[in-house]
Write a structure and sequence with these properties.
The complex is a heterodimer of chains A (about 110) and B (about 110).
Chain A lengths: L4 E3 L2 E4 L5 E6 L6 E7 L5 E8 L2 E5 L7 E4 L6 E5 L8 E8 L7 E2 L3 E5 L1
Parallel strand pairs in A: 2-11
Antiparallel strand pairs in A: 1-3, 3-8, 4-5, 4-9, 5-6, 7-8, 9-10, 9-11
Chain B lengths: L9 E5 L4 E6 L7 E7 L6 E7 L4 E3 L3 E6 L4 E6 L8 E8 L7 E3 L3 E6 L1
Parallel strand pairs in B: 1-10
Antiparallel strand pairs in B: 2-7, 3-4, 3-8, 5-6, 6-7, 8-9, 8-10
Classes of the chains: A mainly beta (about 110), B mainly beta (about 110).
């Protein structure tokens, strides 16, 4: 069964460092998303991406964040200068179309120290 | 029910019984709703979705009910099994696409033998 895959499963980084979280969406999907879940809190929408550009973003997704689809299979989330409060599970999701369900990956646990 | 912070409402169910998980959503303009299951250390897993032009939808062992009048969503699981133990999230679409979602806080379901 096709699935969204994310790497790494766990990333530890020092405050101020840049991190790149990687995702391989399901192959025929065209809509891509990043979410995060701070420990003990709700899953929160960060950004949606379609046709090589950001469709929508939340207020969390500030200038420290960027997304990219560098090739035909990967979808990345970059945090330029990590802060302690960026520690969270980051989930990538993808959907076939605008009006289809989103399927989530297993997540990357980011720990900023 | 809904909760914030570290404390999730918990539903304890005996194996073989039916489970009902409730969710109140916030935006009367939402037209798409979805239930996800999240097991420990994993990403949200799609269970079932429903559009606002429906009030009931059935899947395999699961039924989602939508009451737009009171902005209430419920998930019924028939003949609950130990593998159903997880946190269950309802979500509503935030924007035009179905992948931009606002998640509820979740309900912990514990299935006892």
């Amino acid at each position: 069964e096709p699935e969204v895959t994310q790497t790494p499963s766990h990333q530890v980084t020092q405050m101020g460092q840049e991190v790149i979280l990687r995702c391989v969406p399901i192959s025929n999907h065209l809509y891509f998303y990043w979410y995060r879940q701070i420990l003990g809190q709700k899953v929160e929408f960060l950004v949606s991406f379609y046709n090589n550009e950001i469709s929508e973003k939340s207020e969390i997704f500030d200038d420290q964040f960027s997304v990219e689809r560098p090739d035909g299979s990967n979808f990345t989330l970059k945090i330029r200068s990590t802060k302690l409060e960026d520690s969270a599970m980051y989930f990538c999701a993808s959907g076939v179309g605008r009006y289809t369900e989103a399927f989530f990956g297993q997540g990357t646990r980011l720990t900023v120290v | 029910g809904e909760s914030v912070g570290l404390h999730l409402p918990t539903l304890s169910v005996q194996e073989g019984d039916n489970s009902i998980i409730n969710c109140a959503y916030s935006n009367s303009a939402s037209d798409y709703f979805i239930w996800y299951k999240q097991e420990s250390g994993k990403g949200p897993q799609f269970i079932i979705d429903i559009r606002s032009n429906m009030d009931k939808r059935q899947g395999q062992r699961v039924t989602v009910l939508l009451n737009k009048t009171v902005k209430h969503l419920s998930l019924q699981i028939a003949a609950t099994q130990p593998g159903d133990s997880a946190v269950y999230f309802c979500a509503e679409n935030l924007g035009d696409s179905w992948g931009k979602l606002q998640f509820g806080a979740g309900t912990q379901v514990v299935v006892t033998p």
